[in-house]
Amino acid sequence: MFIPLHDANTLKHIKVQWVTMALIALNVAVWLFTGVVASPSASQATIVGLGYIPAVAFHYATLEPALAFTPEPLTYITYSFVHSGFWHLASNMLFLWVFGDNVEDAMGHLRFLAFYLLCATAGALFHGLVGTTSEAPLVGASGAISGVVTAYVVLHPRVKVWVLVLMRVPLPLPAFVPLLLWIGQQFVMLLIEPDGSISWGAHVGGIVAGGLLVLVMRRRGVPLFDREVVTPKAVRDRPIPNPTMVVAPGQQLRPRLPWGKP
Asked: In CATH, what class is 3-198+207-217?
């Protein structure tokens, strides 16, 4: 439907989105190893060994010991760091780059990391519930990214986002316009094509988790839906002890100079 390019949304609580950048770096590193350096057979073995397989998770099938790279419960997370191709990786990482920094800003580094992994887990779980006997491995960060996108629109629906519509037309739109359309598409496609090559179930699981978790994992005082934090009247009307002194954000008290701005 659209490709996000940039959002006009500065960071307010953190200086650098370290977790977002680390997640992108880790996803790229895994893809370079499995999709570029590794042989086709090793790449396929990695997808099977680290991917989430519903039939294995729900005990309808078992993996060969040589392919069981990690304990089965960990595949609810490991699958999200493996991608089947460059464009699969690029699209997910672009969404994470544009929207992840502000969600990390609203939560803090560690809580954002936990949020990301929980959304990935919810995506895998819902994908498995949609097709419990499926033996096809699920890979990709889409479940986690869906949670990030939902959290962003809950936090910042009115922020302007530049998007490329239909791969041709760049437009600045309020975030809720493209993002709510995208979220709605995931639910519609799950109903139309539950067993398709794209896991709409993982997307929907991530969306639901992201919408719920952002309510409890954001920093105290961070508003929802771009609402301004209103300063209590008692604080606004509190007299300044010394009217000859002014305070600049992040600075110490300094004298008001006669040629300075009031």
From this structure: mainly alpha
In tens, the pLDDT along 28-77 reads 999 999 888 888 888 899 999 999 999 999 999 988 888 888 899 999 99
What pLDDT digit, counting tens, does each position of 87-139 carry?
999 999 999 999 999 999 999 999 999 999 999 999 999 999 999 999 999 99
Q: Tell me the residue ranges of DSSP E strands in 105-207.
A: 160-165, 169-174
Burial classification of residue 94, based on how many CB atoms lie within 10 Å of its CB (0-12 exposed, 13-18 middle, 19 or more buried): middle
Cβ atoms of 86 and 165 within 8 Å: the answer is: no
Spatial distance between the Cα atoms of 65 and 181, rounded to a whole number of angstroms: 43
Identify the DSSP state of 171.
E
**How far lies 33's CA from each of 22, 28, 29, 45, 190, in Å?**
16, 9, 6, 12, 32
Query: What is the residue extent of each domain of the chain?
Result: 3-198+207-217
Q: Are 133 and 53 in contact (CB under 8 A)?
A: no
Contact 164/2 with Cβ under 8 angstroms? Answer: yes
Q: Tell me how crowded residue 83 is: count the other CB atoms within 10 A of its CB.
A: 25
156 pLDDT band, cuts 50/70/90, is: very high
Burial of 133 (0-12, 13-18, 19+ CB in 10 A): exposed
Residues with Cβ within 8 Å of 86's Cβ and at least 6 positions away in sequence, in order, are 31, 35
pLDDT at 235: 44
Which of 155, 160, 150 shows the shortest CA–CA distance to 223?
155
